[in-house]
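Onboarding guide, step 5: your first structure request.
Type a short instruction followed by the sequence, for example:

Predict the 3D structure of this protein.
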Amino acid sequence: MIPQILRKTSNYFIINKYIYLLIFICLIQIFLAGQADLTNYDPNHDVVSYRKMAIAFPSIDYSVGKPFAHRLLSPWLVGLLFNDIDLGFSIFNALFSILFIITLFYFLKQNNTSERIAFFVTAAFIFNRYFIPGFAYEPYRFADVLSNLMLLLSLIFIVKRKYLLVLILSFVGILTKENVIAIVPVGLVFILINDQKKELLKFAISSVILIAVFVTMRFLLPIEQGISLTQAFAENWIKLFTPEALIKQFFFAFNPLFLIPLFSYKQFFAFNKNNLHWFVLLIFVLFASLFGEDKERLMFAYTPIYYLFISVLFQKLEDTLKIKTTTLIAVLVLCWIANLHHIWGLIKLPSREISVAFTIAGGMIMLIIFLSLIKERKSIN
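The system replies with structure tokens like these:
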């Protein structure tokens, strides 16, 4: 009895050790990101728009255009709870960034990843310049962090078949940003492939409620200025098929891990075949990117699945050869260096070209390390 209690206590502190380390790394990365000077921003920029909405709370600032004017929850939370709006955005962004990385850690563990590899992959995500550091630099965009946290939690609870909780989380998410509507096709496919006919009607009703909330907000808040969905599509869909956009969206968004799936394409196809609902999420994210510009940031909703796939690959290596701690640390250092940027960060690179060079070099070195681990595993077998 006593050894069992000691073992459980030991496991509790090991898991919490990883959580504390992730929080520490996240806070350091947020600090190193610095913060943007809003004086140089266009008055119609989303960052400026969210700030205006928070200042106007509880009123509506009708100078804010679409689609930002309908993303009420995050700026209103700041306006409700803080007199210092800028401080409020920074605190909320840091808080929800920490909650997101903790949730990502548990999501990886839920999908048969050890604490060690889950920690390693989550830390690699923290260093990705387009997400935690990028939102720390522009904390007024914490709607992205909050909405994608709600989406990730919904993905977790869909698998647990807690559909009422999924509805509540998605409701909060859709008041924050419209990307959470992705849970509708993902949930429907999950229910269908798992033959849960009894749950199908319940989830369909929940989906109708979410869509109704999405539509109702736009009727109750009729905004003329800004960019409509049709305008956004007309201006952005063709950009997706340019070489620059393809490279940004499918590769640089996952810097420096972006070459690994190319050399593990069979595993990637099998991963998607076994998890069709996650493949549906990828399709939805790609479809949604036809309406937006920042191709890397638009992949945020899919990052938990992408990093899960990376964790699956490294877990297989870990199960066979027990990856050296020094190797994992070296990879994380590489992730940090490869994600240095020329626009944000207390440590800035001198130019865009140098940023691209760091990204490409980081991706190639990462691939070499990964392939060397595969070679080492084969030699053991």
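Each response can be followed by summary notes, for example: The CA atoms of residues 253 and 296 lie 4 Å apart.
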